[in-house]
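Workshop exercise sheet. Pairs work together: one partner reads the sequence aloud, the other fills in the structure field after running the prediction. Swap roles for the next sheet.
Pair: D.N. / O.F.
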Amino acid sequence: MKLAKLRASYPLDGTHRPILMTEVTRMTGGLVCVAGIDIHAGTMARPLYPNGNNWPEAEWCPTDIMVVGNIISVERHPRVPTLYPHATEDMSVVRAFKSGDISKKSLHDVCRELHDASISSIFSQTVIDGKYISDGTNCRSLGCIEITPDRIHPHVFYDKLRINIHDIDGRYYDPPVTELETKNTGDANAGLAALQARLAAHDHDYPIILRIGLTRGWVGPDHNWDPKRCTIQINGIVERN
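Structure field:
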């Protein structure tokens, strides 16, 4: 499915904007961060409550609303986020509801249509040490790359599931996986087994879509990072089937 077909199927009505959900990640405090493609703008959006809060998982995920592949219609709030890089996609909303959904293949097709050339290109070449972007950098905070299974290697390091990535531009990354589907399998080792099984089901040249995002700015374990650091993470893994 192409983005143009989605636009025709979910037209603007003057009040609501349709968002194709591409990623749901678990946060602390029982919350999830959700993001998707603004179908008519062709850019990423991160819906938030008007006060800037994320979404209670127990309220929005089991009820089949904030689920990858769903089309969510949102009514925007006038609050305009200002803190970059997340302000590029943050969207305050006063209402959100499910308008429909698409198949995994269709989601994969749309992600391929809009994918970025590399992780570095998502963040306008501002990545430091292959790990983070400085808080306040005026760049995007969401995107995706297309990559084959032989270039990604999941592993567990200090009880955290990570994917070692050899990107198409030759750079290496080792970000943590925050995808809700993987988190729901259990601890890091259970997530590793589940992810390895998913990758093993595909040929070496199969086009995997990795949804890439950034954490909010963090001061570091010793509270001495100035500026704060927004760390690269894997928000989602999109397959055709």
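Discussion prompt: The first strand starts at residue 16 and ends at 26. What would you look at next?
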